[in-house]
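Researcher: Last one for today. Full complex below.
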Amino acid sequence: MSKKLFVPGPIDVSEDVLGKMATQVISHRGIEASKLQENITKNLQKLFFTKNDILLSTSSGSGLMEGSIRSCTLKRAAVLSCGSFGDRWYKMGISNGVPVDLFKVELGKAIEPEMVDKVLSTNKYDTIMVTHNETSTGIANPIKEIGDVIKKYDDIVYCVDTVSSAGGMKIEVDKSNIDICLTSVQKALGLPPGMSLCTFSEKARQRAEKVPNRGYYFDLLSIYEYMKNKNYQYPSTPSLSHMFALNFQLKKILKEGLENRFKRHEEMAKVVRLWACEHFQIFTDVNYLSNTLTVIKNTQGISVSNLNKKLQERGFLIANGYGDLKEKTFRISHMGDYTVEDINELLINIDDILGF
Ligand SMILES: *Cc1c(COP(=O)(O)O)cnc(C)c1O
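Model: Here's the assembly. Have a good evening.
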């Protein structure tokens, strides 16, 4: 396995998982395809600790972000943003003509449950969108505590973007009261990019039934109904190659053990945080640190792009800051199938280049 992509997605894919992408194609309307999707569903339900149904989408995660805000907002959506990916959800609402308001917190800070309570107490909203792991700032928002707040209100559809955390951090969908929990396959799940998936609750289904213009390709209700009525099949032609690889990778993930996998991510995070505190500073509010990536304040004023150039010569890649945080911060991801040894190898190389 060539290990080098310490950017927050896509990351290196294990050779055996990669190999499954080359499985000979089958008919997407046959019993084999149904079985494949059913197996994927069963294992994703374990990963997300949910009894809710699972929808697949042949798109990257952004497709399901767009699909969820459009399919499930009847009255008005509240997007709570703590960075670029939260902002993206708001832009999607606007460009789809969905009534939506944006609530932002300072970069590096988390979305606190109290803020959600305040927003919902206006009674203006019936959908709320929260990013779990904000990949631009390294924040992991308290989605369970936010879910507790949402429980107090009637009929709010709670959508959570777990694109950069699912598969690396524990996400308990049912306990957290989440109606739609979406993710892409190319981050902590460790697959090549090109597919995404979400959980879909009965509440989300009932809401979508009332929404008149849900679009076509990302109409979550139509994906749901097709899956239900056609024995785990997908309304258009799915990326079967991804489904073979995903099915295989989910089995590997369960074999590693979910708790072991989450622990491994936590340990990798600890190593990076320790290193970051020694040489720089952590950009993010330390009470809400992500276990899948660390965003580091460039307190030494190094040229991140130069560092990355030199790292690439040695076969590694880290990420510059995202958007406005470019050069002011840099990001090291620690997600997927990497181990603490891989992280140490990267850090030794950075130390060597920077003369630490
Ligand atoms: C990467 C990312 C996205 C975008 O996902 P795509 O699969 O590239 O569409 C959305 N949200 C978060 C938090 C991300 O990290």
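The longest helix spans residues 258-279. The chain has two domains: 4-9+257-354, 15-254.
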